[in-house]
Automatic annotation (TrEMBL), chain A:
The lineage of its organism: Bacteria, Pseudomonadati, Pseudomonadota, Alphaproteobacteria, Rhodospirillales. InterPro entries: BUG, Bug_dom1. This is Tripartite tricarboxylate transporter substrate binding protein. Belongs to the UPF0065 (bug) family. Residues 1-26 form the signal peptide.
UniProtKB/TrEMBL annotation, chain B:
Signal peptide: none annotated. The keyword Transmembrane helix applies. The chain crosses the membrane at residues 20-50, 62-85, 105-132, 166-185, 197-216, 259-279, 321-341, 353-377, 389-407, 436-454, 466-486. PANTHER family: TRICARBOXYLIC TRANSPORT PROTEIN. This is C4-dicarboxylate ABC transporter permease. Keywords: Membrane, Transmembrane, Transmembrane helix. It holds the Pfam family TctA. Residues 21-438 form the DUF112 domain. It comes from Azospirillum doebereinerae. The keyword Transmembrane applies.
Amino acid sequence: MKGYRFLTGAVVGALASASLMVAATAAEYPTKPIELTVPYAAGGGTDLVARAYADAAKKHLPQSMGVVNKTGGAGAVGLTEIMAARADGYKIGMGTVEITMLPHMGIARFTADDFTPIARLNAEPSAITVNADSPFKTYEDFIANAKANPGKVRIGNSGTGAIWHLAAAALQDKTGLTFNHIPYDGANPAVTALLGNHIEAVSVSPAEVVNHVAAGKLRILAVLADERSPAFPDVPTVKEKGVDLSVYTWRGIVVPKKTPQAVVETLRAASKATVEEASFKETLTKMNLTLAYADGPEFGKVMQKDNTFFKDLMTKLGMAK
Amino acid sequence: MYEIDMLLKGFANLAADPVTLLLALMGVALGIIIGVLPGLTATMGVAILLPFTFGMDPAPAILMLSGVFFGGIYGGSITAILLKIPGTPAAAATAMDGYALSQKGQAGIALGTATLSSCIGGTFSVFMLIFLAPLLAGIALEFSAAETFALAVFGLSIITSVSGESLVKGLIAGFLGLLLSTVGMDPMGGFPRFTGGFNELLAVPFIPVMIGLFAASEAFKSLGQPASRAEVKVHIGRIIPPWDVFKGLIFTILRSSGLGIIVGIIPGAGADIASFVAYNEAKRFSKNPENFGKGELKGVAAAESGANACTGGDLLPMMTLGIPGDAVTAVMLGALTMQGLQPGPLLFKDHAGLVFTLFAGMLFCYAALLVLGLSSLRLMGKVLEMPRSILTPLILTLCVVGAYAINNSMFDVGIMLATGVVGFFMQRWDYPASPVVLALIMGPMAEASFRRALSLSGGSLDFLYTRPITLGLLLVAAITLLLPLLKHLKGDGGGPTPDGRTVGAGTGGVK
């Protein structure tokens, strides 16, 4: 009898402490290091933003954060892995605008709805940049020439179906012009081709041409943004020129959809504090990148908006699957 | 002269700053280790180290990264020569003759030659960077898609000179490589081709294929050899080549260095292409081209000096124009930017002192490479004395780790093992592996730039003969491709020799 009571007590006690432990782990997240998955190679822009974030986040989370690069498939491999990770907050991901693009191309198993947004960290608009020797001094010159020579203006981008190709295609769609889109293996080779005067323009972000603009080799005619870039206050937006269009690439922290609310809240709070860290801001400034913090819900709206935008655009271009 | 003056000041700056020298030395040592390990490339080494340099001053940060870059390109040759594992793609050309020399018991001299050639080629290229940068930088901008296409075709034509004994088998292997290179994202259309739904195949997993074909296949072969027969004692022997041997190499090294620098300047072409181009030209100018592939010291010297001369060539347009020609320099450009230095013409004007300190440091890096390389060779050579029962599993482990490390992907390990099995049978039936590797490097480049050139010209094929560089390269390619065929038809050389064996089967017991 005594033994029976002892056993009951032990079981109850064990259950009670187990449930207490469960409650405690949820409250104490994180109890072990967090892995930040980056879908692009080490040393690239996305990787450096992620490393600066992981480094600065140490002060705002009780556990450290390590960066793991999972490259391949234009980001599809890494993003798929983030989507399929256990939703416990120990494997979070660096999401990029490709989340809203790749699913429509039929090369991804995820959709934008498979991720819970935590915080957008950075955003860069597309820009129309020409060689300094180019006869086109203004956006109007450029458009007038494109109108007079349909299909002759060669715009270099970072790859077919990549963000800067879609930006140029969207501009074409909105203005009714026809460009000759030339895909390169990334933004750098496209810029090199522009420097060598092999193409008329590129549609990459201002951050990717800023060195050459400063050296007087290239000229930015317009940005496809909602407002003028703080780095180039003299460069107009296409909105000012009557074209209602803005195309941004962005980077931000995302987690798998089923991640518990408490974990999401912890990460959101930590991210909010992390982007205020001087070291994080400094890294972005050095890389000529723009800090564009947006909290989870706001970031989610951007994702939804882009998702619809790119779906429509890719359907029009015949790229959607 | 201004440059010499500034360079001397640069050396004085460095001498006053031993920590910087120490970090550069560490960079070279790390680079060699990274190069030795298959799968870890110079690009990856520089990228991994990059975040650690953020807290440093510009000179030590950039020099440490340069050290890793230089050491990484060189380090690949050590395992290529000793074990036929090209640690980096550039060393695939070194493996052909280097491993054959090793099999003949001349590993030491092959390693020594590789080290000397790397150092001379690299130093030469840094001097070009110092004195001729503004003159040569223009080449980078001349290269558009049409020129790149012609270069890739020239690269493909080199298959004829790396085919080993049988030209036909070489061409078969080359076409196999070209077929493989069509797997992945269509470079112009942006849709997946032959990927079977695997996102991992959106880019051809080039390095796992290379590790599989060269290293894993060799390991599989030795697994099939009974231990008693395989225990051939190989000694490292003499390291520094005697003067009368080295004398014969000087022209090869100088020519290869020049080629390496030019290939380096060309955007999109890196050390892997430079080493094959240099190898090809060394064979073309040789009095005994039939010795290449069977253990010709000139082959090692050419491939290594070409690959390391490429480093200075790569850095040249990056520093003077701010355009990175390949993946390593793209990361290095990031490093300079993070240090608050904007590469381009202004860099030389605003930060001349620092730039020349960097140049002086780069020369120091190559001197360090020579010393570290030569002094570590005896230790590395101990590998040859290891019993096969230990060495073979060790090689296979390295293959698995290396294939995994590139993308942190088990999928790549599977690719590596599968190509290892293919490589085993290729070796057994005397099909050379180098043409496959060459086709995998050049195939996507040729396809993408041809279609890009067509797109740029609005669909006209005129670019094939109206652009001088394109035409010149295409003609050289035609000569490279047709000469061995003509010789073959005439019946002197190029065809299978009576014994019909390849280099790889040197100690072979498989047959």
